[in-house]
Structures are given as C-alpha cells and as structure tokens.
Amino acid sequence: MNIRPIVLVADPLSPVALAALGSDVEVRHCDGTDRPALLAAVERADALLVRSATRVDAEVLDAASRLKFIGRAGVGLDNVDVPYATLRGVAVVNAPAANVVSAAEMTCALILASARRLLPAATALRRGRWERPRFTGVELSGKTLGVIGLGRIGTLVAERMAAFGMDIVAHDPHREGGCPDGVKLLSLQELLHRADVVTVHLPKNAETIGLIGRAELAAMKPTAVLVNVARGGIVDERALHAALVSGQISGAALDVFDREPCTESPLLELDNVTPTPHLGASTSEAQDRAGVTVVEAALQALFDRPADSLVA
Ligand SMILES: NC(=O)c1ccc[n+]([C@@H]2O[C@H](COP(=O)([O-])OP(=O)(O)OC[C@H]3O[C@@H](n4cnc5c(N)ncnc54)[C@H](O)[C@@H]3O)[C@@H](O)[C@H]2O)c1
Ligand SMILES: O=C(O)CC[C@@H](O)C(=O)O
Asked: Best label site of 32, 81, 221, 259, fewest CB within 10 Å?
C-alpha cells in the first residue's frame, strides 16, 4: 500500500493553494483555534499549514511526533515557536513577500478613512443622519507620516502615502542599507513629536511588545492618528484607550488586537477608532501567493523535489 504523507491545514487557505497540494499528499483539515481538535489532528501530520490564527507552541510540537514541516502562509511568525520547532528538527517556512502589498494598501485605506472620518460618517448616515459639519476631515497633503518599522510593508506605505503629498519620517534602528529617497530617519521620540499619522509596521517580539505605551502616546500630537496593521500587543491597548478618551491623540485605526478574535473591547466602542478584524492580508491575490508559497515549500520538504515541478 502506498502511504501518502499527511498535510494538515489548520487555517483557511486559498482554493488555489489547496489545489496546488495535488494528489501525492493526503490533505486533512482542522480548526486550529480548537485546541483539542488541533492536538489530536497534528499527531499524525507530516506537514502543518497555518495562517495567523493557529498557535503552534511547544504543546502542539510535542504532540506532533511525525511533523517535518510548518508552513506559515503569511509574514508574522509570532504564532509559531520557531526556536522549539528548530530544536525538534521541524522546518518552518513563511511567505515574507506574499501579502505585503495587500497589507500596505490596507494601511493606506485606514489612513484615508481616519482622515475623512469615513466609518462614523457612514454609520450615522445608515442611521438616517445627514451630518455634514460633524464629519469635516483633514487633508493628508502636507502632513507628516511617521513609519515605525521601515521594512517591506513600511516602505510600501511610505511610497504610497508620499504620492498623497505626505512628508515621510521613519524610525528603524535595525534597518540595513540606505533609506528610500525622501524618507528621513528619526529617533522614536522625534517621530512621535512630529508625525500627524503614526503607522506601525514591526514584527511582534520581546523588543516590540508594548513599544507604543503611555509615554509614547503622550509624546504624540493631540491631532495625531495611530494606525496599527502589524500586531496587537505592540500598542498597549489600555494606554491607547485612555489616550483616545482623554483627547491626548485624535484617533486610531486598528487591524490587529492583543487577543484575537477581538469582538469585545472598550476600543471597539469609541467613535474615533476604525477597527477591522485582521484583514491586512485578506485579498485573493495575497492569499493565493501566500498559500502557494508554503505549499511549494511543503512539497519540497516532504518529497525532496524541486518546487517548480510540483505546482501547476
Ligand atoms: N495585518 C496583517 O494582516 C498583516 C499582514 C502582513 C504582515 N503583518 C505584520 O506586519 C509586520 C511587518 O511586516 P514586514 O513585512 O514589513 O516585515 P519586515 O521584516 O520587512 O519589516 C519590519 C521592520 O521593522 C524593523 N524593526 C524591528 N524592530 C524594530 C524596533 N524595535 N523599532 C523600529 N523598527 C524595528 C526591522 O528593522 C524591519 O525593517 C509583520 O511582522 C507582521 O506581524 C500584518
Ligand atoms: O492571513 C492571515 O492570517 C494574516 C497574516 C498576516 O498577519 C501576516 O503576518 O502575514
């Protein structure tokens, strides 16, 4: 009998990616946020494919005695215990470029929505209120965008918002190489003092958790808006709530939350917050690219064949 390797898909992947898995593997599905189901299913898996919702920690890795490969169909690896996986001899592959354009476009959408107060204006209109003076916005042209983390997504956001006439400043002490034309690197404090819109594009790790807290929010202009399309927890949510309620800053747009799914939070009740349910990577193009990238890598790891010959 020909026994096919088992690929466990624990978060929703694009149909294109699932088709790319082909027939040389047995594909199983589980809900990676259902812990008992995940622990049971991973026991027989040779490869595990996830997005951001499934937490792949030591408990999962210890339950996965056959596992050789973890594919993270996206950028952030904060939901995977990479050091422990490496210790266990499990390869971890992500798709670092697959969704960066989508995440950047989402960030720009949130910046524009915040400047023109689109969410509260649309909500009021749906409730039968035609309130034009209440929703006077601000122009972005001539204002300053502060990018914290000038990596792939931060750079794409900077390029796009420069086309709206924004001056771009950035903070990134780890950046190697030069800075894109027209972008000025500043200390975090200088950036916070100067920016009209602050946008966060950092990985979540021990250094960045809580990086934007009470003191950093206090350093921002009272007219400024904070945008986070990176990870919840990089911005201290309690401190942010207090800053928004007291008028220390003017607004926030949040695609990510400390605990997800986040359906109850005092932040969701504020009129000056534009919240979205972690949609930065949720485009068909990004999901196809991210899914196919990790499927190709999984097949290569399982069969030791060149990826090009595996995916149609
Ligand atoms: N909302 C979404 O759906 C979505 C989609 C994609 C990525 N993301 C998140 O966005 C993050 C950034 O993605 P990326 O592709 O731009 O990553 P990247 O690695 O290309 O860029 C991150 C940048 O942050 C910088 N950095 C690291 N620590 C820093 C610090 N303490 N202060 C300032 N800068 C620091 C790095 O030098 C790097 O330039 C990912 O880690 C992921 O968590 C979210
Ligand atoms: O598709 C997802 O689950 C979100 C992924 C995104 O946050 C990322 O880090 O790539």
From this structure: 259
Question: Would residue 311 count as lying in a domain?
Answer: no
224 and 291 co-located in one domain: no
Give the whole-angstrom CA distance, residue 163 versus residue 171. 20
The reply to whether ligand 2 has any atom less than 6 angstroms from the CB of 224 is no
Active site residue 231: yes
**What are the pLDDT tens digits along the chain (312 aa)?**
569 999 999 999 999 999 999 999 999 999 999 999 999 999 999 999 999 999 999 999 999 999 999 999 999 999 999 999 999 999 999 999 999 999 999 999 999 999 999 999 999 999 999 999 999 999 999 999 999 999 999 999 999 999 999 999 999 999 988 889 999 999 999 999 999 999 999 999 999 999 999 999 999 999 999 999 999 999 999 999 999 999 999 999 999 999 999 999 999 999 999 999 999 999 999 999 999 999 999 999 999 864 443 332
Domain-located, residue 1: no
Q: Give the residue numbers spanning the domain of 152.
A: 100-275
ipTM of the complex: 0.99
Count of domains for the chain: 2
**What b/e sequence results for 185-218 when a residue is b if at least 16 CB atoms lie within 10 Å of its CB, and e otherwise?**
bbebeebbebbbbbbbbbbbeeebbebbbeebbe
* H helix or E strand, kind and range, residue 184: strand 183-185
307 inside domain = no
Residue 162 and residue 140 share a domain = yes
The residue whose CA is least distant from atom 25 of ligand 1 is 149
